[in-house]
Structure formats: C-alpha cells, structure tokens
Structure to design on (651 residues):
C-alpha cells in the first residue's frame, strides 16, 4: 500500500462544484439531518408525486425493513428521457462505438432514444408484457440494450439482464428463477472480431428442462447472421419496431416498485436475484454519478463496462441518462484489434471521463507504454476505476502514463447490492492516495468491525459493514426475502455485511483489502466458489471439488480447483482439459479454471467442513508448515502432505 498524497489539482479545485469543506459538511448533514437531506436530494428526480418521507428502514430482525421515499411515485424512463427533451432533446444521449473500428459509430439523441424506447415499450406490450412481469435481456453491447432496459422501465416491467458471456445453462437458471416471460436477444454478438451465438444460446436454454415460462423471444438483427426463428415465439425486433407507435405513456410507479433484478454470485448456493427499487436506486445512480464525476453538459462520459453487470446498469444507462449526459457505449474489447484501441476511442469521441477496471489497466500496462503514447488523450480530464482493489502500481500507471498527471483517479468501491458508489473520491474535494477508495459517500455510514462485530475506531483493519440504509440499497433477493436477511444482516446483527475487508488509515482513508468470504473476483467479475464447485461435481468423473482464489497478475484473482475423482477415473491432461471445457459450458468463459489440481482427498475437519484456509495457502504456493498453520483439527492430516506433494510436482 502506498501513502503518497496526490492533492486535488488546481483546475479541479477551481472549477469543481464540491470542495473539501463542502464534502465534509455534506457528509455530516447526511447522517445528522438525514430526512431533510434526502428529501432535498430526491428533488434531482422528476416525481409524479414527490415523496414526503425519506428512509423508513431498520436492519434489526424484529422490524427488518428497507424503504425509501415510500409515498413518492415516478417513472425511471421519464427521468432518463422525457424530462430532458425540452432542454437537450437534440443532444447526444448514446454514442455507440462498434467492435470493428472501420465501421461507422452510431449516435442517438435524447429525442431519438425517447422515440425508440417508446416504440419498443409498445412492442413489449404487444408481446404481452405487463407491469411487474420479468423480462430477460441477453444482448451484446449495442444501443438496443439501453433501449430495452428503458422500455421495460417505461411499462413497469422488471428487467433481468444476463451477461452475453454466460452459457445457455446459466441463462436458463436465471430465466427459471424469476419466471421470465419474454427474452430480448440478438442474432449474434461481436467481440474482438468474433461472433457470439446469442440467439442459438437462447434456443438451447429454452429447450432445457423446466425452462418453460418464456412465450416470446425478441431478436435484434445485430450481425445479420442466419438464425432459426420459431414460429409464434420468435419476433424480429426491426419488424416489430416498424409497426409500433412512438407514443407510449409511462406507467406511474411507486418509488419502492422494483426497477430491475440482476443476478450476482454469493458465497453459497446459486446466484441471487438482487432486486433494486425505482426511486432509491435511480436517485443513487444519478447522485453518485454527479458527485464522483462532476458531470457537465457536453462532456463525453465513457463507462467501459458491460451492461450485463451492475456497473453498466448504473453508469452506462441509469446514472448518466438521468443526468442528461452523453454516454458512450462500446461493443468490443479494450485491446482489439490493437492494444491502443481504448485510447483511440478516447481520441475519436473526445472522451472527458473514462471509467474502467483495474484488470483492463494491468493487461494494457503489460504491453508497454508505446501503445498509449501513440494517442493524444488530450480530452481526458478524469479517470475512474471499479470492480476490484486497484493496486498502487496500476493506479500510478493510469495516473501518469494515461492521464499525464492531470486527471484525478476516482476509485469507486461498491457492489451489485449497493446500486452505486459507496466509498469514492470526488475530484474537487479529495486528495488521493494510490490504492485507496478514500471516503464514504453522503449517507453511507461505513464502519470497520472485528470478528465479533465490535467497532474499530480510528486506524485499524477488519470487516467492512454499513450501519444504516442508503437509498440505492438492494431491497430483497428475488423470491427469497429470508435469504436476503440471512446473507447480509446476521453476521453482524443490525448492520449490512459487505463481505469485504477494509483498513482505515490514520487520515481516515479506507483501503479495501478484498473479499473475506468465499467469493472470488476474477477480472472484476464476481464468482462464487460454490458455483464452480457445483459445476465440477456435475461431471461424471468428479467425486468432489473445492475451489479457491489464487493471485493472478492480470485478472487479480484466478480460479484454482481441487478435484477428487471417482474410483477408476484416471487423472491426467486429457481429463483436465475436459473439466475446464465442462465448466466453461456450464457457467461461461468467465468461470474458466486457471488450475485444476487432482487430489486424492480434501482437508476436512471431523465435522466434514473443508478447510479452505489450507487450500488457499497451497494454491498460493505457500506450503511450509508455518504457512499452513494448525492442521491438527483435520480428520486426516496426511491429506495435506499429499496435496503439498502434488502441488510441488506440477508447480
Ligand atoms: C461494482 C461491482 C463487488 C465486489 C466488492 C469488492 C469488489 C468493487 C472495488 C472493489 C476494491 C474497488 N470491488 N469495486 N474492491 N476497490 N473500487 O464491482 O460490483 O460485481 O457486485 O462486485 O467487487 O470485493 O464486494 P460487483
């Protein structure tokens, strides 16, 4: 960790809307006079009925409730579109950069986007969608993805976006869990010059057992590739749009009505459907986008995430559009066709703020500075980071080589569950330390507690928890409110458990140290070790599997799997390759194991619990008895010797 201080640059200090004193005062007021503060903030949205109540929330078991602006009504698509038409209807809302740099970019003004969204909302209604229905969106990074999200919001349907890199099995699981009636997809996606068979994946998913709730599939013609269409079920997007009216009154929603659900991995069980609200979420996405990035009309904003993750929801679509921003959407990969691509896009579209992930920076950093130097990047004023802890080396490279020491680095810590940034700098208000996400946002009562839940004041390290509700907080796990409570509010009763560890330094800066549970972070993507284990044990050769994270130079963490085979199965290269392929097919390429170690047995306590602490150490290559610690509580301590021997054999 680094303790160097990068003060607010003079130009930001002079122009930013919030300076150091204002940030501190705002924070204090947000906690001490919370109701007034939040009702005031709520005015940044357009309400049909403005709320008169702010938070009515409690994290205690007896009266567990999370509720914000409960008597307010609004529509999210109106806030992202209609209300901008008078003032900036002809301003660009979405700037789209295609995968292939030789193709022409597309742009949609607010007026055009509004018309498309209304049309598609009517198409959805024509396909039977009603308020409260779940609609699964499985699209590449094309403007139609934003259109689809906002069209759902317009009619009060709940969207569930599934990342295009997920397999048919993973897609089916997410469709089944929320009983989706409609899927919106494309013929194919494109990434780095390769085609992704999205429609074919949907067909496979819908043919699987129990995946029977879907009655219509809407298909965007993205590449023109030939795909079979099922009569009566499948509808071409362009054909339906050509018939649809561009007039669609927005459904008036309660602030607490779900806006969307988004599946994310946890430490146990299958992925959970994280449910976000209409009012609180939209306010949080919009407010944090403004506070962290100080957006001004005309700036080109680029969040280089995929709309399949929460970062894409909050900072490609909802936050920027609620703020009337020009949001850039990129179809492809940051390093294709060359390692300069991301910087070429910055130049081509005169990007003001770039928001990306540390894994992208590490991968590009490795290729050398020349790929950066061949571009200008003169338009850049601000750089953002999200998804995992940013190591100080990558931070410095981003700051010095990419931003030429001129752009503050906004390292935002948050989660799918939090809806938007929770701990982050503000460019005009926060002196930076490389690797620290700095201070909590307004209303975020962050605390560090020890293993028993006792608060650690001042300098110290422990579990990061949040002591009170904030507007962007998830409201429940789809169909499983009890799981919501059990997962987040029982480890440290009365507090929201983030699952992350953190250190607070002498100046009050927060440093996120990474997950303290069985979630691993691969290239900024969350993966539950249990999910990969379940996929592995479905293979006929596998008796048992245990998965842990391992340090990885580019991805942050890699996936390390210990596999015990059924009697008669032969460990070897061929089976290793087959298992890797198997996991990719079950979950998707993001879950590809980096290492598979065949193990005759796994280290278990006498009660049968796998001791992951030991497996993590062995995966890290730390195999000395001191590193492995006490193994005396294991049912069979000799298992560890076997694991160490076979680890050393292939290391
Ligand atoms: C937004 C997002 C959440 C987990 C989170 C933490 C890690 C995200 C971070 C960060 C350190 C940051 N994380 N941002 N760790 N510094 N700036 O990534 O959501 O996919 O749900 O992941 O990612 O471990 O708990 P999600």
């Amino acid at each position: 960790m680094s303790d160097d201080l990068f003060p607010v640059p003079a130009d930001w200090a002079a122009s930013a809307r919030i300076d150091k004193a204002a940030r501190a005062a705002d924070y204090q007021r947000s906690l001490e006079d919370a109701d007034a503060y939040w009702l005031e903030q709520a005015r940044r949205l357009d309400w049909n009925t403005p709320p008169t109540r702010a938070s009515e929330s409690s994290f205690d078991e007896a009266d567990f409730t999370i509720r914000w602006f409960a008597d307010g009504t609004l529509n999210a698509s109106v806030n992202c579109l209609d209300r901008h038409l008078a003032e900036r209807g002809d301003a660009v809302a979405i700037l789209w950069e295609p995968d292939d740099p030789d193709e022409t970019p597309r742009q949609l003004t607010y007026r055009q986007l509004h018309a498309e969204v209304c049309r598609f909302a009517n198409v959805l209604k024509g396909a039977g969608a009603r308020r409260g229905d779940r609609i699964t969106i499985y699209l590449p990074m094309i403007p139609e993805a934003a259109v689809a999200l906002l069209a759902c919001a317009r009619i009060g349907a709940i969207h569930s976006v599934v990342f295009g890199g997920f397999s048919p099995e993973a897609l089916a699981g997410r469709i089944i869990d929320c009983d989706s009636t409609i899927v919106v997809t494309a013929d194919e996606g494109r990434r780095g010059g390769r085609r992704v068979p999205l429609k074919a994946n949907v067909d496979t998913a819908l043919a699987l057992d129990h995946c029977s709730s879907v009655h219509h599939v809407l298909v965007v013609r993205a590449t023109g590739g030939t795909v079979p269409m099922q009569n009566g079920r499948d509808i071409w997007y362009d054909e339906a749009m050509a018939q649809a009216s561009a007039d669609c009154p927005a459904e008036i929603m309660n602030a607490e009505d779900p806006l969307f659900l988004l599946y994310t991995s946890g430490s146990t069980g299958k992925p959970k459907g994280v449910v976000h609200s209409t009012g609180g979420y939209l306010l949080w996405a919009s407010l944090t986008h403004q506070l962290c990035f100080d957006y001004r009309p005309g700036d080109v904003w680029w969040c280089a995430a995929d709309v399949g993750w929460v970062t894409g929801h909050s900072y490609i679509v909802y936050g920027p559009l609620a703020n009337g921003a020009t949001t850039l959407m990129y179809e492809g990969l940051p390093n294709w066709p060359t390692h300069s691509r991301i910087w070429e896009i910055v130049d081509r579209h005169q990007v003001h703020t770039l928001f990306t992930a540390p894994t992208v920076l590490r991968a590009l950093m490795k290729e050398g500075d020349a790929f950066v130097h061949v571009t200008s990047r003169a338009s850049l004023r601000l750089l953002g980071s999200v998804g995992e802890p940013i190591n100080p080396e990558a931070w410095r490279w981003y700051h010095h080589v990419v931003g030429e020491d001129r752009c503050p680095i906004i390292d935002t810590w948050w989660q799918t569950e939090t809806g938007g940034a929770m701990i982050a700098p503000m460019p005009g208000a926060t002196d930076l330390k490389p690797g620290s996400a700095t201070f909590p946002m307004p209303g975020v009562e962050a605390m560090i507690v020890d293993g028993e839940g006792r608060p650690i004041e001042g300098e110290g390290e422990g579990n990061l928890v949040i002591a009170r509700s904030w507007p962007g907080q998830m409201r429940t796990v789809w169909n499983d409110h009890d799981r919501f409570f059990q997962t987040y509010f029982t480890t440290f009763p009365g507090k929201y458990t983030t699952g992350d560890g953190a250190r607070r330094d002498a100046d009050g800066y927060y440093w996120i140290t990474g997950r303290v549970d069985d979630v691993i972070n691969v290239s900024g993507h969350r993966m539950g070790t249990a999910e990969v284990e379940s996929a592995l044990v479905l293979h006929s050769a596998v008796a048992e599997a245990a998965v842990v994270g391992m340090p990885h130079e580019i991805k942050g963490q890699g996936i390390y799997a210990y596999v015990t085979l059924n009697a008669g199965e032969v460990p070897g290269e061929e089976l290793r390759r087959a298992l890797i392929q198997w996991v990719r097919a079950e979950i998707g390429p993001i879950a590809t194991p980096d290492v598979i170690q065949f193990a005759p047995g796994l280290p278990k306590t006498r009660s049968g619990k796998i001791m992951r602490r030991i497996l993590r150490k062995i995966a890290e290559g730390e195999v000395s008895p001191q590193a492995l610690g006490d193994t005396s509580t294991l049912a069979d301590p000799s298992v560890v010797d076997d694991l160490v021997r076979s680890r050393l054999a292939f290391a």
Remarks:
- The radius of gyration is 24 Å.
- The chain has a mean pLDDT of 96.
- DSSP finds 21 helices and 28 strands in the chain.
- The CA atoms of residues 158 and 260 lie 5 Å apart.
